[in-house]
User: Fold Nickel import system ATP-binding protein NikD from Salipiger marinus.
Amino acid sequence: MLVLRDVTITFRRYAGLLRQVEVPGVRGVSLRLAPGEVLALVGGSGAGKSLIAHAILGLLPRNARLRGTLEFDGQVLGQPYPPGLRGRRIAFLPQQASHLDPTARVGRQLAWAARRVGARADLGARLAALGLPQGTTRLYPHQLSGGMARRVLAAAAGAGQPDLLIADEPTVGLDPASAARLLDRLRAEATRGAAVLLISHDLPAILPLAHRVAVLVEGGMRAEERAADFAGQGDALSSAYARALWRALPQNGFDPDA
Ligand SMILES: Nc1ncnc2c1ncn2[C@@H]1O[C@H](COP(=O)(O)OP(=O)(O)OP(=O)(O)O)[C@@H](O)[C@H]1O
Ligand code: NI
Assistant:
């Protein structure tokens, strides 16, 4: 249902007074994501993960240039961006908590999110599922901790029943219990039939949830593996890069001299 073919994103930058250069952000990335499937997009800082999310959502900055094709359910995700997708059929849990409106209480913002997708606002249950107290609805964004703000965004993104949910580093800044609850919510969305694109730099954290793992390095796709193959010594992994990544994790006790 989500198909990216040879997606390249470059940025125009001034090099000196008049000369413009194009610097690459993402190069030739292809991927597919089916309903009910969790695809993890992992990679280090600056690898291009958020750019891919923003490209799918039609939210790239003005100085960006996009090549290749993106399709969702047979519709081309170009400019102008197809109506009825962003915030409705495609939900987004952004990396930055600054996406909350500073002037409105949490309860109102969640009610807006629910109304936009035509969902019943069962705020109490949704907050409780993410481990937030009921009183959270009366708070303004500046009264939330970073981790609370991220969970409020998650509650908003989960309103309605999106067909595609894109979560950009959803567990950063959360304590382990809150992170586990949030990943449980994402798993429940996939079980219901949503496609989930889970962006993270933390491979071990997303493995219990992901079906497939795509590894992005400096804007390019370096490996695509089944999540289940990240196990043991990683012998089932198809690419040497993924094997090296897996064996380099501290918990796998990699011995460089062995
Ligand atoms: N508006 C912009 N103008 C120029 N370059 C940009 C812009 N936005 C992103 N980039 C560049 O594109 C690259 C990828 O950025 P992106 O935000 O996708 O990384 P990321 O993988 O999400 O990293 P992180 O894990 O830190 O969030 C970076 O090198 C960044 O400098
Ligand atoms: Ni990012």
